Amino acid sequence: MKVLLILVLITLVTSNAMIDKLVSNSKYSSKKSTLKIIGNLLFDHGYEASWVAGVLANIFHEGTIGKFESSAYISHPEKEPQYLKYMDQLYGYRTKYSNKIITDVSIHELDSLLVKLKAANWKKGKFGLGCVQWTGGRTYNLFQKYKSECGGRDKITLEEATAAEGKMVIGEFTSGYKYIYDEWKKNNPNKNAPGAAYNAGHIICMKYEVPADTANKAKKRGQTAQEMFSVMTK
Question: Is residue 28 part of a domain?
């Protein structure tokens, strides 16, 4: 029993050290807090360093804990997605939510808005939210976790939002999106190879994040995952 406990402690110390190396690298400083929190959480749940690098690479290119998708396409308004134009025009999204943090908005007002969008089955209006930029029904599921963490108050703290998003990430990878991890694990027997990190970043982009221009972004995120893995394990 003591030997098992010692091994667990060594694993935790080692994984925490890998995350510390990553967030100490100036290249990833813009998402330092988010990467550290989610990275340590993934390690705590037993995921391999190469898989963790794949998840973090996608988060690095996607979002920040509690942050709303920006609709401020000032220089290139033609590139603003139609669903955000809809939100701007009908709900004043750019003023009330765009690029803001969940801690700065009314939980009750956001609840009312999401109920309306859900009733329309997200056909016109939606937006990305959080470190994964969850959209549509997944935004709604995330919001339920926000509400649970803040206990019915109209404001949520960053610590509560962090807990909610951590539960969301782990919950998805252990339920509806578990097949992505299982597929990656099956096809990458050597989890300590840089290529395993690249493949993790790639498959997570292709099947979990699914952003616009998916194929090209998947290549970029695979490269970022491989670079992160190198930083973490050097």
Answer: no
- Residue in the block written with tokens 């908005």: 105
- Helix, strand and coil content of the chain, in percent to the nearest 5, comes to 70, 0, 25
Is 7 among the domain residues? no
Read off the amino acid at residue 98: S
**Residue 17: pLDDT band by 50, 70, 90 thresholds?**
very high
Residue at 41 is within a domain: no
pLDDT at position 1 is 53
Q: Which of 148, 154, 136, 161 is nearest to 38 (CA)?
A: 161
Q: How many domains does the chain have?
A: 1
Query: Are the C-beta atoms of 31 and 60 separated by less than 8 Å?
Result: yes
- Of the pLDDT bands very low, low, confident and very high (cuts 50, 70, 90), residue 25 is very high
Domain that holds residue 155: 47-227
Whether this prediction's pTM lies above 0.70 is answered by yes
Tokens of 116: 């309306």
Distance between CA 56 and CA 232 in Å, rounded?
Answer: 12
